[in-house]
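Priority: medium. Attachment 1 of 2:
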């Protein structure tokens, strides 16, 4: 194969190189229904340029895809989002955002494989779409925390009301966030890591 004008293939950008201090890498999945903010979260918190697989929503999707009443949502993830963040000098998280449209949920099994934990993003205007998501995680034995994305026009509820509405056990953390803000998204990931550590210490995480 002849690559004219270049002796070598282009490599990763300098800023995309894995930190030399990294000793452990953990796979985390970010899941939720359509339009809850998964792509935004990966993009806001990733220290590398995120990989996205968004495609424009077209007339062909009418009757197949559900926009859940969103007039501003014009694209949807069709495979996954990918990003990376260093939690400490030694610990790196690989972030995989799942597609929200149900017709792409067959991809979830592959994305869940090898994941240590998950973030379930929730929109309080559409809590019902979270049940199937959490059910899939429970079936796969993937521990998760729930992050309530604070949309400006979304109703706000006390944590215990949300816990009851989502039928969550008392040990599963619920945290409010704004996925547009890097610090807020990072707090969610730190909450997940603390939860996973507590499970490991109790022997519940194998």
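Attachment 2 of 2:
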């Amino acid at each position: 194969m002849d690559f004219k004008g270049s002796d070598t293939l282009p490599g990763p950008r300098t800023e995309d190189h894995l930190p030399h201090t990294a000793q452990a890498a953990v796979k985390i999945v970010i899941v939720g229904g359509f339009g809850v903010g998964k792509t935004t979260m990966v993009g806001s918190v990733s220290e590398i340029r995120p990989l996205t697989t968004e495609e424009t929503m077209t007339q062909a999707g009418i009757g197949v895809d559900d926009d859940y009443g969103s007039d501003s949502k014009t694209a949807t993830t069709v495979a996954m989002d990918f990003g990376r963040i260093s939690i400490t000098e030694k610990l790196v998280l690989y972030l995989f955002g799942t597609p929200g449209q149900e017709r792409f949920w067959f991809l979830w099994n592959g994305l869940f494989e090898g994941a240590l934990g998950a973030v379930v993003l929730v929109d309080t205007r559409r809590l019902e779409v979270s049940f199937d998501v959490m059910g899939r995680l429970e079936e796969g034995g993937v521990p998760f925390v729930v992050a309530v994305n604070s949309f400006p026009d979304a109703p706000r509820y006390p944590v215990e009301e949300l816990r009851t509405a989502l039928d969550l056990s008392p040990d599963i953390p619920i945290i409010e966030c704004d996925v547009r803000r890097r610090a807020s998204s990072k707090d969610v990931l730190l909450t997940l890591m603390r939860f996973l550590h507590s499970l490991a210490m109790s022997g519940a995480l194998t």
